[in-house]
Amino acid sequence: MVRFGDELGGRYGGPGGGERARGGGAGGAGGPGPGGLQPGQRVLYKQSIAQRARTMALYNPIPVKQNCFTVNRSLFVFSEDNVVRKYAKRITEWPPFEYMILATIIANCIVLALEQHLPDGDKTPMSERLDDTEPYFIGIFCFEAGIKIIALGFVFHKGSYLRNGWNVMDFVVVLTGILATAGTDFDLRTLRAVRVLRPLKLVSGIPSLQVVLKSIMKAMVPLLQIGLLLFFAILMFAIIGLEFYMGKFHKACFPNSTDAEPVGDFPCGKEAPARLCEGDTECREYWPGPNFGITNFDNILFAILTVFQCITMEGWTDILYNTNDAAGNTWNWLYFIPLIIIGSFFMLNLVLGVLSGEFAKERERVENRRAFLKLRRQQQIERELNGYLEWIFKAEEVMLAEEDRNAEEKSPLDVLKRAATKKSRNDLIHAEEGEDRFADLCAVGSPFARASLKSGKTESSSYFRRKEKMFRFFIRRMVKAQSFYWVVLCVVALNTLCVAMVHYNQPRRLTTTL
């Protein structure tokens, strides 16, 4: 393969063909000049000028001019290699620092919960002592915000402090706390009221709470759609109630003798099946109505409020009883039963369903991301391990095949040598008395004899080793085969069937068979 600086020999015929195409006369391999080129003649390389330009731009890009807003310098002072910024990053990523901030937030929440406010701006001694702890909490929160700003940068470059929504919330809480603490001589009650947002700092430190809050924020659009549908349902039932019950809740039983207060806070009617007045009372108008005149269907606004009270299932039975007293109990169930089923059991549960669905999707997304990263690492390790094992198995098979081929190519002379060695060993072992053992020992102890004995043992052990490897390869292929898997599966199914056939008072023959 021709490299970047090598000559191309064949586009126009010969190493100098490129110059001939440009108009150069000579340029063969035997031309004058070093390498067969004329003085001043250029060589045609594998890459064109445009390709070389792209390569140089890729591996040696032109540095982009950066100003004070784009360069990654924290507070325009601390670069990425600055010692102060490095230590700030270490502190922010240190787990005990995170636990300390969480403990401080919890302690501040407890302090805010223990405050007691009295009339005319008075405070209890405990509240005064708790107010003395406020500067310490503000100092810790300011230290956290400052060290994070040094470590991440403030706002201009990517990944800076204010580019994160949780950090923006923390910064607003800290800023309002500083203003409220520094301006105690002024009327900054609104800023001091912002301290109730400090428990939200727990969200930025606990990932599970972030999942919940993100789920609620992502569910806002579906919740608005469900709210619009619920409003249309309320409006529909309010219009129906306006048509049937307008002005029905302003009649009550008054005493005949005087114009005093009505007897009981219940509506009445002048004709059955409504509730009729008893005794020395009569049903008259000009009563404000139940709940000081709030519960009625006189106009669309009060009707919407009454229907909303019904679908919340808070006091809807009282409204049903008042309606029965004012208009009778014959057909009112046709209005209130669908109102409760559709408005309360269906519509309001849609809100819970949307929240639950968004929470499940957000949690599933987080868990899937974690599982994906874990699975990717595991698959990478398994691929590397399988590659090593496959390489080892292939190497063993190649070595075994090479040994078999070498064993088959043994010459007849080696066979005769092995036979002679075996015969000499047998003669040495079974030698009789009176023979010249010294000569035999010398013969056996010769280098040729020792080499023959050693080669015989080695060949015998290598033979069994090859057979053992071949047997292992055969077992490995058999276990990895698909047919072996189905055989095992069938055996398991047959075993399950045999276990399932066992029953009480079964025949002896079945017991023996199983």
UniProtKB/TrEMBL annotation:
GO terms, molecular function: metal ion binding; voltage-gated calcium channel activity
Transmembrane segments: 97-114, 135-156, 168-188, 223-245, 300-321, 333-355, 484-504
Compartmental location: Membrane
Keyword Lipid metabolism assigned: no
GO CC annotations on file: voltage-gated calcium channel complex
Residue span, Ion transport domain: 95-365
Its membrane topology: Multi-pass membrane protein
Keywords, comma-separated and alphabetical: Calcium, Calcium channel, Calcium transport, Disulfide bond, Glycoprotein, Ion channel, Ion transport, Membrane, Metal-binding, Phosphoprotein, Repeat, Transmembrane, Transmembrane helix, Transport, Voltage-gated channel
Catalytic activity: Ca(2+)(in) = Ca(2+)(out)
Any one Pfam family match given in the protein's UniProt record, by short name: Ion_trans
Start-end of Gly residues biased regions: 10-37
Region (Disordered), start-end ranges: 1-37
InterPro entries: Ion_trans_dom, VDCC_alpha-1_subunit, VDCCAlpha1, Volt_channel_dom_sf
Coiled-coil region list: none
Residues holding Ca(2+): E314
Keyword DNA-binding (UniProt): no
Function noted in UniProt: Voltage-sensitive calcium channels (VSCC) mediate the entry of calcium ions into excitable cells and are also involved in a variety of calcium-dependent processes, including muscle contraction, hormone or neurotransmitter release, gene expression, cell motility, cell division and cell death. This alpha-1B subunit gives rise to N-type calcium currents. N-type calcium channels belong to the 'high-voltage activated' (HVA) group. They are involved in pain signaling. Calcium channels containing alpha-1B subunit may play a role in directed migration of immature neurons.
Family designation: Belongs to the calcium channel alpha-1 subunit (TC 1.A.1.11) family. CACNA1B subfamily.
Name by which UniProt lists this protein: Voltage-dependent N-type calcium channel subunit alpha-1B
Organism: Homo sapiens (Human)
